[in-house]
Structures are given as C-alpha cells and as structure tokens.
Design a protein that fits this description.
Number of helices of chain B: 11
Shape of chain B: rod-shaped
Structural class of chain B: alpha+beta
Order of helices and strands of chain A: EHEHEHEHEHEEEEHHHEE
Radius of gyration of chain A: 18 Å
Largest sheet of chain B: 5 strands, antiparallel
Helix content of chain A: 40-55%
Oligomer: heterodimer
Radius of gyration of chain B: 54 Å
Helix content of chain B: 40-55%
Strand order of the largest sheet of chain B: 4-3-8-6-5
Amino acid sequence: MRLLLIEDYRPLQQSLTKGLREAGFAVDTTRDGREGLWYATGNEYDVIILDLMLPCMDGLEILKKIRAQGRKSHVLILTAKDTLQDRVTGLDHGADDYFVKPFAFEELLARVRALLRRSYSQKNPRISVKDLLIDLTSQRVWRGREEIQLTPREYVLLEYLAMRAGETVSRTDIWEHVYEFNSSASSNVVDVYIGYLRKKIEQPGKPPLIHTVRGRGYILGAQS
Amino acid sequence: MTFSLKARLLTGIIAGMILLLTVFSLLIYGVIRNALVKQFDTSLASVARMLAASAEFDNDKIELEFEVQQMPEFQNAEHPTHYQFWGPDNTVAAKSPLLGTEDLSRIESSLNTLVFGTSRDKNGQPQRTAGLKFMPRIADSEDKNYRSPTNVQALTLVVARDASDLQGQLRFLRWLLLIASAAVIALSFLIADIIVRQGLRPLNSIAAEIATIREDNLTARITAEHVPAEVVQIKNRLNELLSRLQSSFNRERQFNADVAHELRTPLAGLRSTIEVTLIRARDNDEYKKVLSDCHAIVENMQTMVNNLMMLARLDTKQISFNTEQIKLAELVNSCWRPFSDRTLERKISFDNNIEPEITCEADRQNLSIVLSNILDNAVEYADEGGQIRTTARRIDDSVEVAVSNTGCQLTSEQVSQIFDCFWRGDLSRSDTGTHCGLGLALVQRLIRALGGHATAELQPGGIFIVRLIFST
C-alpha cells in the first residue's frame, strides 16, 4: 500500500518513514508543504499522513486542494494542535482521521490499516480467497492450514491483490500502490514479483489463485 | 475595617436630624417661653403700678385704697397674688391679708424701676415676683391747715403672683417638643432607611453581577442599566478592568497552549524514534544513530525549557544581576564561538566590527544569553553564503549594539512582531522542534531587565538588524 507522509519535523519524519516502510508500506515523504501538494495531486496514494503546520503551505490548504481536485486518498491529520475546534476544522475540511502528537506508533499503524480497509470497502481484518487466508493485522498468510512465509514486498503485493480480490488489477495500479515514487524499479518488477508470489502460494493439485488477464493485468481468485 | 455604607448614611442622617431638631426645639421653646413670661410680667407690672398708685402717704402712714384691697386677685387663695410694702427703714408698711404671718422677700431696685424675679412660696409653689421702689402719693387734705409732709420717703413694693399655670404651660411645651422631635426622628429613620436602601440598590445589583463572573467567563460584562451617574463610573471602570483581565488571561492561555504544542512535537519525534527502533533488533551502529538523534531532540527541548524558565523568572523578577565592566567585542566573540561550525557549512561569513575599547556595565551572564540568542537567530535565518555583522557605538551615556544578517525574507509588518513569544517568520513554520520562537522574546525581556531595550528593523536587500540599546 502506498502512503505519503508530509511532516516537517525531521526526527519524526525519519522515524515514521522507517517504521512505515518496515511495516510493508511504500512511503513517499517530504518536509515541504508545496512539494507535498505536488506529490499528493500527482499520485494515487492510499493514505496521506499530513502535518498541519508546514513550511510554504499549511496542511489544511493542501487538504483543501487535494479534495478540490477530486483525489480520493484517505487523509490522516497528524498534528500537535489538539483543541476541539482544530479537530472539527480538520475533519470538516475532508480529513478521514485526526491524530494528535505525541502518539504510539502502533496506534498510528492501526489507524492507517483501518483507513486502508475503508479504501477497499473491507471491514474484516482477515481476507480469505478460496482457501487462502490473509490476516491484515499480523500480516500473516495461510493456504489451507499451512502458513506461507512471504517477504514484505511479496506480502504487500498479495495484500493489494487481495483487497481487490475478484477484480482485474492493472500493472500500473500495482506499480502505483505498491512501489515508492523514487524507487528505481521498472514495471517489469511487477511481473517478477508476481512470479515469486505464485511460487509460494500456488500448490500442486489445487486450482490456481492468481490469474493473468492478457493485456490488462492480474486477478486474484475467481476469474470474472 | 469594613463598615456598611447603609449604616453610615443612616447614622449620618439621623445624627443630623437629632442635631437640627434639638436646635430648633430649643429655639422655639426659648421664643415661646419669653413671650409667655413677658405677658405674665406685663400683667404683674400693671398690678404693681396700680398698687403703687393706690398707696397713699398719709400722716406718716401708708394707706391702700379699699377697692384695691378688695380686688379678686388678692382674695383668690388658690392662685393668689400677694403684695408687701416696706418703708425705708425696712419696716413692713403693709401687706396682703392672705400672706398672714408670711413675708415676701424684699427686692431692691432703683426708683420707679420694676425688677422681676422667680421664687417659691411657702408651699413650694413657683411664683413670679416684681419689685418696685416708688415715692408714694401724698394724701389730699381737705384740711386747711394741711401742710405738706416733709418726711416723704421712698417705699419698696413687692408683688408676687402664683406662676404654676405658667410653669405648667412651659412644661407642656417642653414635652410637646420632645415627643414631636422623637416622632420625627423615628419616622425619618424609617424613611431614610427606605431611601438609602433604594439608593444603594444599583450597587447591590452590580455586586450580584460581579459575583457571577468567574475566571472561565471573563467575556461577561456588567450590564446594569438605569444606574445613577456615580455608579456608571464604577461600572465602566470595572468593565475596563475585566477587559484587561480577559486579555491577560487569553495571553496566558495562548502561551500555555503554545508551550504545550511546542513540547508535543519534539516529544512525538522522540517517542516515534524510540518505538520504531524497538520494533525489531537492530545493529549497534543503528542504535548509536538513534541515540544521538534522541540526544539532539532532548537538547533542543532542554533549550526550550530553559528559555521558558528564564521567561518565568523574569516575569516574577527572580533573576539577580551582577554588573561588571564588559568589553563588548570580546563578549561577542565568545558568544559567536558555538556557531562557527554551523556557519562554515553554509558559507556564512561573520564580521565582528565592534571596536575593542567599547565597554559597558552589565551582567555578563545575562548579556551573553541575549547576544547568543540574537546570533542564533541571525545564523538560522541568514541565506547560504550570506553575512552576519556586529557593530557598536556610543550614544551619549548609552551603548548601541547592532547585529545584522542578510537573507531576511520577512515583511516589515512581520518584523514588528518579532519579539512576541512563539512568533516565527513562517507561520506554517520551517523549523519545527529546533526553534520555537522564544529566543527573541527572551532577548527583549532580558534586555529590559538589564535596563535597556531591543529594536528590530528591516533594511533594503533583506538585511535584518537587531539593535540593543542600554545605558552604561
């Protein structure tokens, strides 16, 4: 899942980026408001974590502009401003969540996961496709009773496909939601990782789970 | 000591009433008494003159006309009028028969002059007396051989009349006045009480309104309408006081909110850095880096807390100053030392143009804090490859130190706010966590405590100058 972090306080920005990446998210990050807006309007982020007091452009201003352009990204405001009025203003400007500093990193992760589930209309933190079970919270995967060990990259790819299980997912979508803006990977990487993933989750004697839709992309689960 | 305004007004009014009524009563009593006594005396005088006129000196004896002797007033035993004549040798020449063996006391007067007095008769009844010395008439004689007496001498006459009626009237008058006064005072007490209570009602209503104002609703104002002019003054002054209180409370609240906000951000950084690191095992180098990051955050927080403490101490005047002779150029150089590395990276040049002989009288430690804060600010906001300069000059018996830096992007309006707490050039700040906007606020307060003041100005070309002016 691809996140954008706009936070100007360097220690917070660095630790959050690291923590979120380690949790398997593709994270783009900036400390400048105007640059943040450019990122946010140019890409389809699943979640944007937004500080309010930023150099060059205020967080609320960025939020307004994102919404004015019709971007559907979920926005989580992360700020030290904690008055009722601040919260109301933030949410009324189109934020999906409002979180006050200082905070527990675990809770931030849980809130981000909750926003992601909402993005894909997925209320249940466990997704099952046939006998494949994915636990979004613990990030573990089972095929039948057997747990499958995936690398973070593979897991993220599978999670994205599972969130959109049953529908065709294009390579571009995968590229946009799973990889960071400035990663050096080419679109070929998607096919390579799909290959890795197939090796791990497909089992002989069982019908395949990941199908290739020629010229369009991939689909997890029943071919529609 | 507290006292009740109502009690004071009432006491004053009643005391005034008592004084006035006493004076008027005494006056009225005096006038009426005089008039009554005068009337009584006039009547007594006419009796005395009549008696004197009826007394005849006849053959060395005094004779009273019979009709006079028989007049009812000399016969009335209940309210008797007595008379008594004395001859020159103090012998009783005649007296009214009702006196019996009693004698009236003799009153001396000059010839033909009436002298009045008050005395008591044998029963202790009050009586009014009139004394008259006169030359008696000589009896006409049909006798041809009549010869004028040669030994006619002045007689003394005293007339005494019972005055119990007069005394009774006067006693009645006294009681009348006393009771009337008491009644007037009692009634005026009731009326004054009502008037005073009515008059003080606006004060009470204001007091009731004030009682409802607490520190959490300082926006409230005293509205009391239709109050007298004197109370309007009080009301307006109180409302002004409330406004000042409110803005001071708001400043305090804003300051606290700002402090909380400024501490939250580095705390969040600290917490998140530690928590993310603890999620899994890391190698030693990574732990070292995380610890040094945390250390830097803690140092910044400490600076901020120190500044806050300093501001608080300045507010409560808990800072002591030891003035000494300070060479400014040297002090600026020593304050600059910690910044030299930072400026090297960003190619900022520093020129200390203060002449070595310029000195000032000040507290070294606090002046260092002031200069360090200004230099810190200059380094932070100077452009890459920019210049920081310090100069000093004497103006009469003051010294002006100026610190200028290039690369300022503020407007002159923003420069005017630069000494406010938590104010930063870029409202959506560019340096969260490292600069919280307390440095220059502290500069202004410290330099004021040192007996000077600081100004900031913007010169063309983005040159920002902070000037410190203080007496030496």
